[in-house]
Amino acid sequence: MANVLRNSAKFGFSGVLSQLSIHSRHGRECVSPCFSLQQRNNSTSPKIKVDLDSSTGVAVLRMQSPPVNSLSLDFLTEFCINLEKLEMDRSCRGLIITSTLSKVFSAGLDIMEMYGKSPERCGEFWKAVQEMWLKLYGSNMATIAAINGSSPAGGCLMSIGCDYRIMVDNPRYSIGLNETQLGIVAPFWFKDTLVNTVGNRAAELSLELGLLYSAPDALKIGLVDQLVPEDQVLSTAQDTMSKWLAIPDHARQIDQCVYIIYNTSPLPLDHARQMDQCVISVCIYYI
Ligand SMILES: CC/C=C\CC/C=C/CC(=O)SCCNC(=O)CCNC(=O)[C@H](O)C(C)(C)COP(=O)(O)OP(=O)(O)OC[C@H]1O[C@@H](n2cnc3c(N)ncnc32)[C@H](O)[C@@H]1OP(=O)(O)O
């Protein structure tokens, strides 16, 4: 029975993802042992450092792109490559995302990517933003954001793409989808992810007013799950992860799969993705 469940989790989950055209089909089940071994190496790329502890199965991904971990095309590409490697590594079951910078988790999309670029480049950039969310939200790993600084806009999206959020208890750090304050509008799938996290009314207020919440206020509306002192954010994330990993992967994944089917935005559907890309590319081009 356990095997049946486990297999239905593997194939059911990836089957659903493939139906939804999520491009990050992970297929842990077909990774060769040799490839898996190679992936156990920790990796450092210029903007991202990954440490995988193969005894716990938990990887810590540190964003290290000063000054503010802005999500440029290069950053997003590195991020997705690292996520894909971990996803393919059978020994990795949990992922913690954090920042090496003081005061900032991520400033969101790199504003320089949205200014004076060709339509082709804008399209490429937006595709990378979509990929980041699809890979994170559709991940087979348990994912925790250890938010050790401010996390506006795209930084907030990255956080709510994770299964659980722990934020440093500092009222000077803020988080939220503040796009309207910048005179732009959060795409529909940002909105859907926020609604899934904080509920309809809070999301509506939050998006229309472009609210940035201090850490304590973010906890009040459920935008983050827990606040901790600065020096405990990573250890708390590790402790919390061990609770998540105490749940059999197949059960958690089936549950997530059901959640995705009933609550996810239509972005994973190819036509919705293309439409979104078109609209945003044109918007960026005319900024
Ligand atoms: C048309 C498009 C339609 C739809 C797209 C909708 C989607 C949008 C999602 C987004 O993510 S848009 C980006 C929104 N991001 C923000 O609003 C964040 C703005 N930044 C901040 O609030 C702050 O910088 C901070 C709280 C993250 C950090 O504050 P602090 O530590 O005081 O640093 P500074 O403000 O002094 O910034 C240092 C340095 O970094 C540059 N920078 C800041 N944010 C970005 C960014 N998003 N992209 C690129 N660069 C950024 C800033 O200009 C400073 O550069 P200097 O050269 O002046 O040092």
UniProtKB/TrEMBL annotation:
Recorded superkingdom: Eukaryota
Coiled coil: none
GO molecular function term, any single one: isomerase activity
Signal peptide positions (record): none
Pfam families, sorted: ECH_1 (PF00378)
Keyword list, A-Z: Isomerase
Keyword Isomerase listed: yes
Similarity-based family: Belongs to the enoyl-CoA hydratase/isomerase family.
Name of this chain's protein: Enoyl-CoA delta isomerase 1, mitochondrial isoform X2
Organism: Salmo salar (Atlantic salmon)
